[in-house]
């Protein structure tokens, strides 16, 4: 009888954690439905549409990231055209589905080391929060998708460290996900590698380093490299521009570590994870492996050096997963002590503060929605261009107005990079000449886009730099702009419209 009562009580608790997991997905779905499409995602969807219309990446349109950034969102664009559904809506749905698949596969893998259903569903609820609710403003960004893809691989490394027996197909699927993450950005090798090495040390065997999932991930990366060479040779030709004007523009290391919120938040998660693992040692291995992956994410954040919120999602998401693992798995193996309750409450309050701050940080981005109404008043569905270094100025505005982006680039990131590097000084004459040539290329692109695309509206940023003056330095670009006149200035942005437009 006691066994039956205990089993019924356990089943009830499992159902509660299952319900909480579903609730996390429901909240994530509602959040994704009401938020504006992410700045970068909006541009990459537009790039996908241009690609399906026959324009060639790195020849007709130019992007600062490798082709995987475009290919990642291409299915949503293609399916959207077939089903007559907005691709931004499809991206949200596909990412939510991918989150469910990732958690399901991760749970299947971890169950080989943990047989307790209640514990598995606690981990699932925590994982659902991290993948669907925590991202807020970086939901569907490449880093968000990469964490979804790599999670089963990290679960596999943890299970291997526990000595679990894992099948070939589970291992291969987890490896494919890791390969996709590394194809999105090679930096994700820094998150994948440490847990594998720790598992090898823990087992005192090199087997985890040569396991099926490693070969599967390597195969995906190799096939992607082959695709780059065969299908996107223009990207390789465009690499010098990316190398010379995009990669070197980065924030100072002191700012990344001390002035921006993510580094202190990440350290806080590390301290909380270590603190919890010390009191509840049952979760120490899983927490340590996940935090090692999180440290790889932190290294990637510093290497990229941009300080953008979405770059910090892997380090913070994996750090929070480490804390969740420490608490849940430690609770499974360690008896509760009433003496620790005040400490546990304090730890929970600190953790909630870190999570709230992290979610707020993920919403930090340029917001130019104040332009929507004035632009729409001039032209309801405009052909649009911007002259600005900020991608957020034109995206997602053009998509929200159901307009058409007639530019070859998302912004003047090429010229902005040149201007930043020249302002810093220390350039050789040869490098300065090369950079000036790249800025001239940017101006030629813009002039050609205006002549060919005949935009109804050109948005010119004037708040921090005279981009109108920058444009008029070039005679061809100045001539193209002669057909336009400023109408209104909103939020430091001047709206230029065609002089011969029909009056409304």
Helix fraction? 55-70%
Report the radius of gyration as a whole number of Å.
Answer: 25 Å
End-to-end gap: 80 Å
The dominant shape is elongated
Mean pLDDT: 93
Strand residue content: under 5%
Domain tally: 2
DSSP helix count? 22
Strand order of the largest sheet: 2-1-3-5-4
The helix-and-strand class reads mainly alpha
Largest sheet: 5 strands, mixed
User: What's the number of extended β-strand segments?
Assistant: 5
Order of helices and strands: HHHHHHHHHHHHHHHHHEHEHHEHHEE
Low-pLDDT runs = 1-5
What does this structure look like?
- The chain folds into 2 domains: 2-361, no CATH class; 369-498.
- It is mostly helical and 504 residues long.
- Strand 1 (383-387), helix 18 and strand 2 (404-405) form a beta-alpha-beta unit.
- The protein has a 5-stranded mixed sheet, with helices on both faces.
- The chain has helices spanning 2-34, 39-52, 68-71, 74-83, 87-110, 117-133, 142-161, 168-184, 189-203, 212-231, 233-246, 253-259, 262-279, 284-304, 313-333, 341-361, 372-378, 397-400, 413-424, 429-453, 467-472, 475-481; strands at 383-387, 404-405, 457-461, 484-490, 493-498.
